[in-house]
Every structure is written in structure tokens, then in C-alpha cells.
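Researcher: Here's a chain I'd like modeled. Treat it as a single chain, no partners, no ligands.
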Amino acid sequence: MNLIELGLLTWIVTIGFLISAAFWPHGPVGLALVSPIVGASTYVLSGLALFALDGFSTIGSFVLASVVALGVFGTRVARGSAVPSLHDLAVSATYSISGTLVVFLIAGLGSITRLTPDSIVYLTIAGGLERFGEIPNFAPDQILRRQFTTPVLQTGGVVTGLGYFQSLIPLVVGSGFGLMLWLGAKSLVRQSVALPRIAFVLGLVGAFVLSTNQVLYHLFYINGQGTFAALLLTVLGLTWYATATEQWSVAVMAGIAAAAIAPLRAEGIIVVAFFLLPVLVSKSTPVWARWVLVLPSAVTAILWNGVLLPRVLPEGTIELTSAPVLAIAVSAALVLLVVLSQVSVLIRLMRWVPLAALGLLLLYTGARSVRDTTLLYETLSAMGSNIALTGLWATFWWIAPLAVAICVVATTVPYQNRLLWGLGAYPVLLFAFAYLRAGAYRVGPGDSANRMLMHVVFVIGLYLIVALGQLAASVSEEQWSVYRFYTSARDTLLVR
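Model: Modeled as a single isolated chain. C-alpha cells:
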């Protein structure tokens, strides 16, 4: 039966490979890394389309996603658009198949995927979707918390009798981690940083990211946080790299990943909106790329939350602060922003939109904090405790903010506002979400805010790779040699 899982995993990767290959300009390694993420996202979006039209079907979702992938790739080839060479396609396909097999052997046959009571709820929703084409009649708060993406990623396990996929989430999250390393390395190569220094920085930051229990756990945990981290890294990393290289065809993959975030968590479209604001208002972003980034996620969020709204609100009522209403409003605002960004008299004002949005967020959070100081105190206490000790992050959140701050002062990463803007706004978003859900966060590794910190870990890792790589490049060869001699001697003495 495990071979059935391997076959479906390969099918998902192939879907992503065909779509990504139609637009990918950056070589076989990156194509192999992005394919599982795009494939899983396309499968989810196909499932949502069927769910909204006539009820969900696992086989139908696979078929629809395959038709879309073949149609996209075939159309690009027929029109003579630039696609990777046959050699690069063959090499990338080999990497993709090999990577999928390795993850399957480690996670699938090794049976190291973790389940919790939250995971069981996701799998129950997956079972209802597959057997009845419908979400089980859960309490409204459970539907709002679990959403659509994570359950749908497990429906293949239900239809094949496996119960759940052991390997799909590790494959998606592992691809996000690999894409983080690849994007950082490509940026440093473009800046002519020596390969030994790039390798050193990749090893340092990669080990740092994997040094925490939370990151390792979410690599093999049936929940949405690891998937969110991989998708968000894909959205921001590809748009950041597109800005630097002016090769905006990768915006298609970023747009697909952004659309899959929208039904992944209740706050998904809000996070996407805030993180993409600098890209959407920038003159360097082509208009078509703005639409590709915004329209799929906005349509997905409106479609999903429109279906969700009557299920979670009492009949005949609408609460303006409910998650579905906010998601629909933010989606509409994103579309309006892209429209207004093309109006000549408003173009100069667009650069103030991110600051205005942050100002409104701060105003809302500040006003609610004054009205409810108890929730503010409880949230600050819980988050402080989790970051420092009880959240099982080891020293990650002691070191990462300090490292980012030092790098901001010491060097300038190309187009760094694309990465840093969202990271700076994210703590405020977390506090705003506490008031929107009308409940303080709690102490412990399973707390919602503690797990949401996982969402930005790969973005932080990407920034640190590029920033530290630039700093390493500024060190003279003589200083670098002395440093390498010192570390080698120290390690030898410690071993002895």
C-alpha cells in the first residue's frame, strides 16, 4: 500500500513540475524544489473549485489539476515560449523523482509523521470531504480553525485506504527549506561571493533553522504551520528574486502558492496581503505580475469564505469582525489596490500604502489594548514565555531578531524591504489576531501564536543567508584563512 502513496506523491510533483517548467528560467535545481509546492497547491485549488461547484472529489481533483498542468505546459510550448531545455528538464525530473523517493523512504517507510488531536480533526474533515464531498458538520469554530488546505492534502490517503499521507507534508516543507537555501545561494552567486563562503553560510543558517524542536516537529507534523512556512517562502522568495533578476515569469508560481495560503488558515489572506504590499505598490513590478500575485489568492479567498460564511454564522446575521468577512474584505481591497496602482494620478501615493496599512493595524491593536488590558497582559506573558523557554524554540528567537537587526545595520541586502517589511509587521499582526479571535494566547508549545511563528522562519533564514553571505564576502582572504585555521585548530583540540 505504501507504493500507492509514492505513486500519488509522484503525481502531485509531476503536476507542479509541468506548471513550473512552463515558466521557470533559473535551472534544474530550483525547478525540482518548487515543483512539489506548486503541485500540492494546484491540487488544493482544483479541489476547492470542485467543492464550490458540485462537491469535492479526490480523483476529480487529481484529474482537474493534471488537465490544468498539461494545458499550461502544452500551450506554452505550442506558442514557442521559453521553457527549459530537454537536458535541464531531464536533470530536474531526476532531482524531483530522487527527492520524492528519499522523503518517502524517510517519512513514509520510517513512519515518523506525528499526529495530535488537532491532526485527527484534520483527518476527519478529509474523510468527510472524500466520502461525502462535503465538510463534516463540525462546530463553527472548528471549521474556522481547520480551513481547507490541510485536510485536502490528506484526502489521497483516505481514498487509498492509507488513512493519511505520511510523506506529503514532509515533502512540501522540506522543499520550502531547500528553496530557502537555493534562493540564498543563487543571490550570493549573482554577487560573486566565493563558493566556500557561500557553503559556509548555507551550512550555518541551515543548521540554525533546523536547530529547534518546533521546526523539526513541523517537518513531520500533520498540521498547517509547516505548509504555511513553505508557501510563504515561495511567495516572498520568488517575488524578491524576480525583482532582483527582472525575470517575473516566476510570479506565476508565487501566485499559485499565495492562492493556496488563502484557505490554509483563517488569517491566510491577511498575511499574504501584508507581506506582498511592497511588491504590489512598486513601480518595478509589472502590472501583469501584480494581477498574477493578487487575483488567484483574492478569488480563492472570496470563493472559500463565501462558501464558509453561512456555515459559521447564525442564520441571517453578519459579524463584520468574523474571519470570513474580513478575508473577503481584504481580498477586495487587494484587487482595488492593483486597480488604483495603475491610475496615473495615484501612482506617487502608492508608496505610502504599506505604511498606511501598518498605521491602521497599530491603531486597531492599540485601541483594543486600551479597552482590554487583561488580554494584552495575558498575550504578552504567554508569547514572552513561549519565545524564551516554553515554546520549544531553543535559542532561535533569542538569536534570530538580534542577528537580523545586526545585519540590517551592517549590510544592505538587495531589495531587502521585500523580505523585511512583512517580518516587521508580523508581531503586530499576531497581536491583532488575538483580539480578532477574542481570546488570549496561552503558554505552551501547542499555542496558536507559538505555532504561527513557524510561518516566518524560512523567510528569516533566507534574509540571513544573503546578509551573512555579503558580510562574509567583505572579509579579506587573509582574515578568512586565519578564521578557518582557528576554527579547525579549535575543533581538533576539542576532539582530543
